[in-house]
Amino acid sequence: MNKDRKLIIAGNWKMNKTVAEALDLVRGLKIELANVKEVDIVVCPPYTALADVSRAVLDSNLRLGTQNMSEHNVGAFTGEIASVMLKEFSVRYVILGHSERRQYQKESDALIAKKAAAVHAASLKPIVCVGETLTEREGGQTEKVLATQVSGSLAGLSKDQMAETIVAYEPVWAIGTGKTATTAQAQETHAFIRRQIAKLFDETVARRVRIQYGGSVKPSNARELMSQLDVDGALVGGAALEARSFSDIIKSSI
Ligand code: PGA
């Protein structure tokens, strides 16, 4: 594939996998993906499996991410996890503002922007999720919603930080539903997001930013999605829970 941005494919394990199950999955991935160099591969286990998965991926091409992080550095924030704690486990990426957190934890664009700043301050890379609901798409609101999410969740980042930020476009109606955006819908929406980034930052930054697609990505649709000009990888939920399907997604995209 002839794109100057390296593909990045991340597995969002959500609230799945005990430590034993997580290690089992990583064992399988290490075997299946040992020779893959063309793609940045990231696994995002739950916090409870972080220490063990961190040790297990040390000698591999798998990089570690988490599914959230506090915007604060330390202190009285019950239940929260700070960047310094993640760095102890060699975490490199942090998913922020996933639609499930926007919905269930009521995370706002402003909060996500604070978290993104904290992630960069710790020299980690955020994967910032945006996406419209079915009602919003059907109501012709997709671009308006995405423009608001993009400008709000990325507010305050420097150009250098933005260039190192990964954006994940995840139409909410495609997450865990088996419905995928068509390749044309994905390309069109990714191009729109890139244009917004160009407006907010500049063209050079926009050309460098990697935009992942997420929402029912599976081995059968991954290649076509990632062959689109502005689709630079995938954020995978359900299909990332098994070594075979996640590896097949990665191999099919090369
Ligand atoms: P899915 O989830 O692949 O199961 O649709 C994607 C996500 O929520 O990141």
Percentage of residues in helical conformation: 40-55%
How does the helix and strand content classify structurally? Answer: alpha/beta
Strand content: 15-25%
Given the C-alpha coordinates, what overall shape results? Answer: globular
Q: How are the SSEs ordered, and which strands pair?
A:
Elements (H helix, E strand, L loop, with lengths): L6 E6 L6 H15 L5 E6 L5 H8 L4 E5 L16 H5 L3 E6 L2 H6 L4 H13 L3 E6 L3 H5 L3 H12 L5 H5 L2 E4 L13 H18 L2 H6 L1 E5 L4 H8 L6 E4 L6 H11 L1
Parallel strand pairs: 1-2, 1-8, 2-3, 3-4, 4-5, 5-6, 6-7, 7-8
Summarize the structure.
The chain has an eight-stranded parallel barrel with strand order 1-2-3-4-5-6-7-8, surrounded by six helices. The chain has twelve helices and eight strands. With 254 residues, it is α/β, with parallel strands linked by helices.
Structural description of this entry:
The chain is of the alpha/beta class. The protein has a single domain, classed as Alpha-Beta Barrel (TIM Barrel), CATH 3.20.20. It is built from 12 helices and 8 strands. The chain has an 8-stranded parallel beta barrel, surrounded by 6 helices. Helix 1 runs parallel beside helix 2, helix 1 runs parallel beside helix 12 and helix 11 packs parallel to helix 12.
